[in-house]
Write a structure and sequence with these properties.
It comes from Lactiplantibacillus daoliensis. The chain is of the alpha/beta class. It has helices at about 60-70, 90-100, 120-135, 215-220, 245-255, 280-285, 295-305, 310-320; strands at about 1-10, 15, 25, 40-50, 80-85, 105-110, 145, 150-155, 160, 170, 175-180, 185, 205-210, 230-235, 260, 290. Helix 1 (about 60-70) packs across helix 2 (about 90-100) and helix 2 packs parallel to helix 7.
């Protein structure tokens, strides 16, 4: 019999709507009364780690969750399921993906509809997550996100719709597997993975989105000795308005790592354009191009690298590609 640890952290999956349709955490998690539908096949152990809406989740909470999962690996657990709010689910999942070894299947899930809404998706997502975590094939694939019968890599999945139950998608690549009628089916696996078993998390790693007519003001505001890193969601393939360049150079001169991704939904950031503010110039300045991650994921990766105490060169190699 498989032994699966279910860790509840809050979110819509743990909420109920009031008469007006407003959702909020209650005194009791409705998942606490959940009955194991796989009795005889899967033994469930359940813990409420915390009960927070996902906008309240911080890197410190992510680290707390990572430490609990790492402990579970020595307790004879065959897999872990984490229930989580969807707003920051992809960031927590990717943080865990970067900081946990791949031997133990870890699956993150949530819900877009609260427990007492018509068409609530929470219990179904929880059941499919348990099925996935108890499947031997789920090992060595990194942390997984299971929602709406699809299995996604934590590395690439993102929330694409504010309320739709099919909100989690993987741009460009698609899901790596499905939860079908007769079981879990995988179609893809990770190329490689790098694990950073950090013990603390750095702060003051920022994310800035570029826009037409952008000036230096936001970059100047974070040019502080306490700043540990900056991720820029740049225009197109990886370009910035010329007025930002002196402020970006100032950050680099201060030894602050500056990472660049594209603000586009699909594609990767590249040093393609050779004009003022173009990717060629930015790369020559020392900006790190991160390929394949969105802004929030790149920030998590930069934060983990800084927290691990990586040197400038190590950090540049670590952040530059999603396939590590």
């Amino acid at each position: 019999m498989k032994k699966i640890l279910v860790l509840h952290t809050g979110g819509t999956i743990a909420m109920s709507a009031d008469a007006a349709g407003n959702m909020a955490p209650g005194a009791q998690n409705p998942l606490d009364s959940y009955e194991n539908p796989f009795s005889g096949e899967v033994q469930l152990e359940t813990e409420d780690v915390f009960n927070l809406p996902s906008p309240h989740i911080t890197p410190a909470r992510m680290l707390e969750l990572k430490q609990r999962i790492a402990k579970a690996a020595s307790e004879g657990v065959d897999g872990v399921v984490v229930t989580h709010g969807t707003d920051t689910l992809e960031e927590t999942a990717y943080f865990l993906d970067l900081t946990l070894p791949n031997e133990l299947p870890v699956v993150v899930t949530g819900a877009m509809r609260s427990a007492n809404e018509i068409g609530s998706d929470g219990l179904h997502n929880l059941e499919t997550a348990i099925q996935t975590a108890s499947t031997p094939d789920a090992a060595d694939k990194g942390v997984l996100v299971v929602m709406n019968d699809e299995i996604h890599s934590a590395r690439y999945v993102t929330k694409t719709h504010t309320t739709n139950v099919a909100t989690f998608r993987t741009p460009t690549f698609g899901p790596i597997g499905l939860v079908a009628k007769h079981g879990v089916v995988f179609f893809e696996s990770l190329l490689r993975s790098t694990v950073c078993p950090i013990r603390t998390v750095a702060d003051n790693v920022f994310l800035i989105k570029a826009y037409a007519g952008m000036g230096p003001e936001l970059f100047d505001a974070i040019a502080q000795p306490t700043t540990n890193g900056v991720v820029i969601e740049a225009l197109g393939a990886g370009n910035l308005p010329p007025a930002t360049l002196p402020a970006v150079q100032k950050l680099l001169d201060m030894g602050i790592p500056v990472v660049l991704v594209s603000r586009c939904f699909n594609g990767i950031a590249q040093d393609v354009y050779d004009y003022e503010g173009g990717g060629v110039q930015l790369k020559q300045m020392g900006v790190i191009f991160c390929q394949g991650l969105n802004g929030q994921k790149a920030r998590i990766k930069l934060l983990v690298g800084v927290s691990a105490g990586m040197s400038s060169d190590e950090l540049a190699r670590f952040v530059a590609t999603a396939n590590s």
